[in-house]
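Weekly structure sync, notes
Attendees: PL (lead), two postdocs, one rotation student
Agenda item 3: pending single-chain targets
PL asked that the sequence for the first pending target be pasted directly into the notes so everyone works from the same version. It is reproduced below exactly as submitted, 276 residues in total.
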Amino acid sequence: MKYIAINLQAGFKFLSAGKSVSKTPRKHIARILHAHELFFVQEGELYMEQNGESAVRKDEMLFHFKGIWQAGTKPTSSTFYWLHFDCQMQIFDDKTEAVRFCEENENWGFFAQHFLLYNPERVTLFLNQVNHYYFEQGGEIILNALTTAFFGEIVRQYAQAPTVQADIRFNELLAFIRLNATTDVTLLSLAERFCYNPKYLSRIFNERTGKTLKAYINGIRITLAKKKLLSQLDTVKQIAREVGFVDEYYFMRVFKKETGQTPKEYRETYSASVYT
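Predicted structure, written out during the meeting:
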């Protein structure tokens, strides 16, 4: 992850902007960028590569650097804004270095190359204004001023809401797990989908939930299995498969560890009270 420090007082040079709406899957062109570019995804997903792939999802922003090869990596349906510009900037590999630089240099601010926006509605408002003046040929001075103000908003959002952004992303991850717990959800697939380093995700998952990812998923599966044991006549083996366990005997071990009973004992204990 790179961190971009920008001089807000020096102003920005607006070059071009637009909005892409693709209802059928489409892949971004490959090229060498002749200007810095910012992407903001409003709907869907955008897969881009510049020294590594980035999966940019709804309400996320991605920064690409000029002079470097850029390409889409897979076709998707998406709605996104793009903005080409130039400005006075410094690039850092470490967040603490960016913080120190901006503390030592007045009128500088910074943001991450790829992050989830705290208030995407304000970003949409700015970009709509930029596009309006661009296509109406509103003039260089107005477009440069709007671009400068826009990046002031980006810096403000990143500075004010890093914890909120992290919480939003992690809560979305938990919601995804709950909806897909019966499928083959893995640490690597989650890390890729939600843009985490796998080792970091494993650590914060344990810190925030008190469980490993595997234990968390198994807990959801067992809760679902308990409902199925009392509401349908499928065999234990069938229910194990339905809730995501390939191995019937592993399912029974996990079930007993979670409930203190085997699936058969659980069904015999509670089914009578359910149907009387």
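Discussion points:
- The radius of gyration is 24 Å.
- The first helix runs from residue 95 to 104.
Action: rotation student to compare against the earlier draft before next sync.
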